[in-house]
Specification:
This protein has 282 residues and is of the alpha+beta class. It has helices spanning 29-36, 75-87, 179-187, 225-237, and strands at residues 2-11, 14-20, 47-52, 59-65, 70-71, 95-100, 103-111, 117-125, 143-150, 153-162, 164-170, 197-205, 208-215, 219-221, 244-249, 252-258, 264-268, 271-280.
C-alpha cells in the first residue's frame, strides 16, 4: 500500500484528481486512475492527471480516464492542471506551455488578488477534420451531418478531432434524447475504431449553446472542454454559430472563440476543492 498526496479540482462540472509525479510515484497510472476515480471505493472523479517533467515544454500532463484508459488531452482538465501548477509554484509563469499526448498546449492566465490563477485561456490549436485521422471509418475530408443508425433510429452526426475524437449531434429537445444509452452506443460504434466522445448540442442562439456530454472512457460527465470546442467549430462550419460562443455545460460554462483557420481559444476557470492523501492498494 502506498500513500499518495492528491489535489482535487473542478472545471465546468468535470472533477479531477492531480498527482505530482515529478519524483516517481512508483505505481501503475492506469490502475491508479481506475481505483481512485471510483466514487464508492475510491475518491471519485472523471479522470486523473499526473504532473511530470518535460524536455519539450514547461511541464508535462498525463491524463487518464476513470475507466483506467489513457487519454490524449482534456480541455477542462488542462485548466485544472494549469491552476495546480501555477498556484503551487511548479511553473510560476503567466504564459505556460504544457506537453500532452495531443501535442504542446499554450496557456495564458490571469491571477487574483492572492496571486492565484483565475481566468485561464488555452490555445487548443486547430481541429482535424479528415475521417482517417479522427479516426472515423468514412473516407471524407470533413465528416459533417452524416447518418448513423442506432436502434432503428437515424441521427445526423458530425465528427472531428480536438485533441481527442468527438461526435456532435444537434438536438431540438434534449429531453427526447436518452443521453446515457445513446452516448454509450455511439462511443462504441464500429464507425469509430478508437471510440469517441459524444456531445448533444442545443443551440440557443448564434452565441450561446447548451451541451450534454458522454465521454469516452468516463461515461456521462457534467462538462467537456474539448467537446465544447468541437461543438462550436461544427456549429460555425454549418453557419449556425458565430465565432465566439458561450458554452453552457451541465456543470458550468466557458467561452470558445475561433480565430483564423479555426484556431480554437478556450477560456474558463477552475476551482481547487480538496487536498489529501490516498491509500492506494495495487
Amino acid at each position: 500500500m502506498k500513500t499518495l498526496k492528491f489535489d482535487k479540482y473542478v472545471a465546468a462540472g468535470n472533477d479531477f484528481l492531480i498527482f505530482d509525479g515529478r519524483e516517481s510515484l512508483g505505481v501503475d497510472y492506469n490502475d491508479l486512475a481506475l481505483k481512485a476515480s471510483d466514487r464508492h471505493f475510491g475518491i471519485g472523479c472523471d479522470g486523473i492527471m499526473v504532473c511530470e517533467y518535460s524536455s519539450k515544454a514547461d511541464i508535462k500532463m498525463l491524463y487518464y480516464n476513470s475507466d483506467g484508459s489513457q487519454g490524449e488531452m482534456c480541455g477542462n482538465g488542462i485548466r485544472s492542471f494549469t491552476k495546480y501548477i501555477y498556484d503551487y509554484g511548479i511553473v510560476k509563469k503567466k504564459s505556460i506551455s504544457i506537453e500532452t499526448l495531443a501535442g504542446i498546449q499554450y496557456i495564458d492566465l490571469e491571477v487574483d488578488e492572492l496571486n492565484k490563477a483565475s481566468e485561464i485561456r488555452v490555445n487548443m490549436g486547430r481541429p482535424v477534420f479528415e475521417g482517417e485521422k479522427i479516426p472515423v471509418n468514412l473516407d471524407k475530408e470533413k465528416i459533417l451531418e452524416e447518418d448513423i443508425h442506432i436502434d432503428n433510429m437515424n441521427y445526423k452526426f458530425s465528427a472531428l478531432l480536438v485533441g481527442v475524437p468527438h461526435v456532435i449531434i444537434f438536438v431540438d429537445d434534449i429531453n427526447e434524447v436518452n443521453i446515457n444509452a445513446l452516448g454509450e452506443k455511439i462511443e462504441n460504434h464500429k464507425l469509430f475504431p478508437k471510440k469517441t466522445n459524444v456531445n448533444f448540442v442545443k443551440i440557443i442562439d448564434r452565441n450561446n449553446i447548451d451541451i450534454y456530454t458522454w465521454e469516452r472512457g468516463a461515461g456521462r460527465t457534467l462538462g467537456c472542454g474539448t467537446g465544447s470546442c468541437a461543438s462550436v467549430v461544427v456549429g460555425n462550419l454549418l453557419n449556425r454559430l458565430d465565432s465566439k460562443v458561450r458554452v453552457n455545460t451541465e456543470g458550468g460554462n466557458l467561452t470558445v472563440e475561433l480565430k483564423d483557420d479555426y484556431e480554437i481559444i478556450m477560456t474558463g476557470s477552475a476551482s481547487h476543492v480538496a487536498r489529501g492523501e490516498y491509500l492506494f492498494r495495487s
